[in-house]
Design brief:
With 171 residues, the protein is α+β, with helices and mostly antiparallel strands. The protein has a single domain (12-170), classed as 3-Layer(aba) Sandwich (Glutaredoxin). It is built from six helices and nine strands; from the N terminus they run ββαβααβαβαββββα. Helix 4 (86-96) links the parallel strand 4 (77-82) and strand 5. It is globular and about 45 Å long. 39% of the residues are buried. The model has no long low-confidence stretch (mean pLDDT 92).
Length: 171
């Protein structure tokens, strides 16, 4: 299981953006995790699924609202990862107005999530293999803080907690 001090697992996530920009088509576009994290401080959070109640109403909105404060605390990018396809993540991002604030990264087959060891098996509820809910500060690909939630909770992986950790890390 991923822990503080580990390098993020290698892998490719997918990103669908609303408007093509220089060097980035609408998508889906592959995002090489190691290349995208290189030389950056990333506020990464993962959720069990797009549009699900806790993720949609609390978790993602907190990061959208805190984007400016996180950047002020030294965070270069905010990543939201979920085991959904890139089109769903793009639609969720559009709904939550994440453009320019949070990168919505899809792990459609849960390959990268499995490599983190932070999976949540919701097969019995008809949802299949998902990501556990967590947040992390990642500096140049290395996990500096990690906040893993107990099942069904949203108490330690929220934007407020990660912002406090980013400020502390920055000194």
């Amino acid at each position: 299981m991923l822990k503080v001090g580990d390098t993020l697992p290698a892998g490719t996530l997918q990103e669908y953006i609303e408007v093509a920009s220089e060097g980035c088509s609408v998508g889906p576009n592959p995002v090489d995790v190691h290349k995208a994290a290189a030389g950056k401080t990333i506020a990464l959070f993962a959720v069990p699924g797009a549009f699900t109640p806790g993720c949609h109403l609390k978790h993602l909105p907190g990061f959208v609202e805190s984007a400016g404060a996180l950047r002020d605390a030294g965070v270069d990018e905010i990543w939201c990862v979920a085991v959904n396809d890139a089109f769903v993540m793009g639609a969720w991002g559009r709904d939550q107005k994440t453009a320019g604030k949070v990168r919505m990264l899809a792990d459609g087959s849960a390959t990268w999530t499995q490599a983190t060891g932070l999976t949540l098996d919701l097969t019995a509820k008809g949802l299949g293999l998902r990501s556990n809910r967590y947040s992390a500060l990642v500096v140049d690909g290395v996990v500096k803080t990690l906040n893993v939630e107990d099942s069904g909770k949203l108490e330690v992986s929220d934007a407020t907690n990660l912002l406090a950790q980013a400020r502390q890390l920055r000194g």
